[in-house]
Amino acid sequence: MRTTITIADDLLKKAQVLTGRSGYSEAIVTSLQEFVALKARLSLLHKFFSKRAPHAQRKIKRQRKLGRWSS
């Protein structure tokens, strides 16, 4: 898709350096792809860590005392 956008020169230069792309369009497309992939990974991490652990710390300690839990 062809579009016209205004991007600060210093931001575009940083994107080119960080992505290793010399062209403006390549740097912008690569930056957007990496941003979307990063947000997807962060979303998965959030879903994973927002759930409660299957074992409560108190239960683990009790099981260790009884010799039924090892780590």
Report the order of strands and helices: HHH
| C-alpha geometry | rod-shaped
Q: Per DSSP, what share of the residues sits in E-state strands of 2 or more residues?
A: under 5%
Query: What's the number of helices?
Result: 3
**Alpha carbon gap, first and last residue:** 53 Å
Stretches where pLDDT is under 50 for at least 5 consecutive residues are none
Average pLDDT over all residues? 89
Give the quaternary arrangement of the chains.
Answer: single chain
Please provide the count of β strands. Answer: 0
**Helix content percent band:** 55-70%
Largest sheet: none
Q: What is the CA-based Rg, rounded?
A: 23 Å
Quickly give the structural class.
Answer: mainly alpha
Helices, strands, pairings?
Elements: H1 9-19, H2 24-50, H3 57-65
Helix pairs in contact: 1-2
Task: Report on this structure.
This protein is mostly helical and 71 residues long. The chain has one domain. It has three helices and no strands. Helix 1 crosses helix 2. It is rod-shaped, with a radius of gyration of 23 Å.
What brief labels describe this structure?
single chain; 3 helices; 71 residues; mainly alpha
State the gist of this model.
About 65% of the residues lie in helices and about 0% in strands. It has 3 helices and no strands.
